[in-house]
From TrEMBL:
It comes from the Eukaryota. Residues 60-71 have a biased composition (Polar residues). GO terms for biological process: positive regulation of mitochondrial translation. GO terms for cellular component: mitochondrion. It holds the Pfam family DUF155. The lineage of its organism: Eukaryota, Fungi, Dikarya, Basidiomycota, Agaricomycotina. InterPro entries: DUF155, RMD1/Sad1-interacting. Residues 42-79 are annotated as: Disordered. Residues 134-333 form the DUF155 domain. This is DUF155 domain-containing protein.
Length: 396
């Protein structure tokens, strides 16, 4: 399409949009979407050789969702008049746990930020015109809707790192995951909000069984109010996956530190660390198991919040299952169990070695005591033996 044709088309869209907006017969955002849709179709017709050349590239996520990414291609490659742009969801974990109450009076947060069930919700964040939505969860994870990596890192730097005492057990390296979403409140096919491949579609949602789950005073937000709790459910599942990824990375580093033990046993017959070092490693292992199974937010269980809301539970479980959180939790538990068994065997070897050393020490002490007794009482004993023989001879 030539620059003149593009300019004429754009002017026509703007004029038509203004006319319809002034008449208040159709929402402005819908006509803007239609103009974008028509422009996309026109550009696609002029580039028929590469119909997907302008399509958004796949997320850089390393999650298991990549295996089902092809399921989102129909949405990515076929825009509709009511569908918005594909936007990122960026998740970052920076600590083992957050104390969310420390955010209540944070000076950098918008005044309408508030607690939303098990998260701290920021309805708007970012530069004007590039605003997104943020959920901060107590498991040390931040989920950003409509914000890219740089904006998410800015939130962590300006809010999380500046809140004194909010981070418990800061991670040496943050763990991140990426996903995409698209808003289509008037889905032409009548489809509901769902996860399709590696893309979340925010469409129609059913009524809540308990409307009081929504905040009392809902502030203005960037994304549709109707899908607020759906976004919360997806965010909680994504936050769990990212927190689990951080735990998996930490445990892999722990296994690396223990990797030389079997080789040392095979080559020298002795463990390459002392009893104290082994006890410290066992303490680290117990900490991993506690974080995985005994923390406030268990990775395998569905939160109580969803018991009365089957639709929200469906959003949560669909993303949790797609990210294989349950299988990964079971796998990590198996690794911890194997490592604990190996350390138990090493501890037993060290105990046997210590017992053998104690036996040698006791034998040595007995020998020393015998030598000392001989040195001290030897002449007297000799005199007693020799003197008795001499007396017998004299008697005869």
């Amino acid at each position: 399409m030539t620059s003149i044709a593009l300019r004429a088309f754009r002017n026509g869209c703007i004029a038509h949009t203004r006319h319809q907006h002034l008449s208040n017969s159709v929402p402005l955002w819908l006509w803007n979407s239609q103009c974008r849709y028509q422009g996309t179709k026109a550009a696609a017709s002029s580039q028929s050789e590469h119909p997907l050349s302008d399509a958004k590239s796949k997320p850089k996520s390393t999650t298991p969702l990549r295996r089902s990414a092809s399921a989102s291609l129909p949405i990515r490659a076929n825009p509709t008049p009511t569908r918005g742009d594909i936007q990122p969801i960026f998740t970052i974990a920076t600590a083992e746990r957050y104390i969310l109450s420390r955010l209540r009076s944070h000076p950098e947060l918008p005044p309408r930020s508030q607690a939303l069930h098990e998260a701290w919700w920021v309805p708007k964040w970012g530069a004007e015109g590039k605003e997104g939505e943020v959920f901060v969860f107590a498991n040390g994870t931040v989920v950003c809707w409509g914000l890219g990596e740089s904006a998410a890192n800015s939130f962590v730097k300006e809010v999380i790192h500046r809140a004194p005492g909010i981070e418990v057990g800061p991670l040496k390296e943050p763990e991140t995951e990426e996903l995409d979403f698209v808003v289509d409140p008037i889905e032409l096919s009548g489809a509901q909000t769902r996860l399709q491949g590696d893309l979340i579609l925010l469409g129609q949602t059913g009524p809540l069984n308990e409307p009081e789950l929504l905040p009392t005073n809902i502030p203005p937000m960037v994304l549709p109010q109707e899908t607020l709790l759906a976004r919360y459910a997806f965010s909680q599942a994504l936050a769990r996956s990212t927190a689990l990824s951080a735990l998996e990375v930490s445990f892999d580093k722990y296994l690396t530190s223990m990797a030389l033990l079997p080789h040392a046993l095979a080559e020298t017959g002795k463990p390459s660390m002392s009893r104290i070092q082994l006890i410290k490693k066992l303490g680290e292992l117990m900490k991993f198991r506690q974080q995985l199974n005994l923390s406030y937010e268990n990775f395998s269980e569905v939160p109580d919040f969803y018991w009365a809301e089957p639709e929200l539970e469906r959003y949560f479980t669909s993303l949790r299952n797609a990210l294989e959180v349950k299988a990964r939790t079971s796998s990590l538990n198996d690794k911890i169990t194997y490592t604990a068994d190996m350390q138990s065997m090493l501890r037993q070897l060290l105990t046997e070695s210590s017992t053998h050393s104690m036996e040698l020490i006791i034998i040595a002490l007995i020998a020393v005591e015998v030598v000392i007794a001989l040195i001290r009482d030897g002449p007297e004993l000799w005199h007693m033996v020799v003197g008795a023989d001499e007396e017998k001879e004299a008697a005869h």
